[in-house]
Amino acid sequence: MPSIIFAQKNGVFYAPDKIDESVQLPVLDGVPDPIKLNMSLVRMINSYGTRKLLGFVRGLGGRKIEFYECPSVFIDTVNIVRDLLGEAHDPRSVVSYSIPHYCDQCSAYSDIMFKYADVRPDEEGLGLPSQRCLKCGGDVYVDVDPEEYLAFILEKP
Ligand SMILES: [Zn+2]
Description:
Layout: E1 4-5, E2 7-9, E3 12-14, E4 18-19, E5 23-24, E6 35-38, E7 44-45, H1 47-58, E8 65-68, H2 72-80, E9 96-103, E10 109-115, E11 140-142, H3 146-149, H4 151-154
Parallel strand pairs: 1-5, 3-6, 4-7, 6-8
Antiparallel strand pairs: 2-3, 9-10, 9-11
This protein binds zinc ion.
Zinc ion (ZN) binds next to loops.
């Protein structure tokens, strides 16, 4: 099986759609900090892939890593394996990520992208600016349990 690589473009590494045993992680020779990984293409991460990614992050030592455009499949994995954010479990490593939304009007699900700084979760909710359905413009609602989905931010290491 050919290995699936992280393509590099303008200093950002793009993770492939599947992160499994065949994935080949980036070679960081000459790459300055922070190491930038764009996760927008990722649709599947299995346990082998999680282990490989974890080995990669642990191998960075104290180097700074930033994850961009993280889909929910990656956020779900981070919530289980907090070490993916590095030793410090710093949630700010997740620079931007999607939050699944649901539209009552047209029954469409949509993943809406937020920057880390846009979301200020507390007991009252997510503190999100209100969003519109990408299909019909209707009101959309957060389609995840915020406490669960944002555990990587809400639970201090
Ligand atoms: Zn809609």
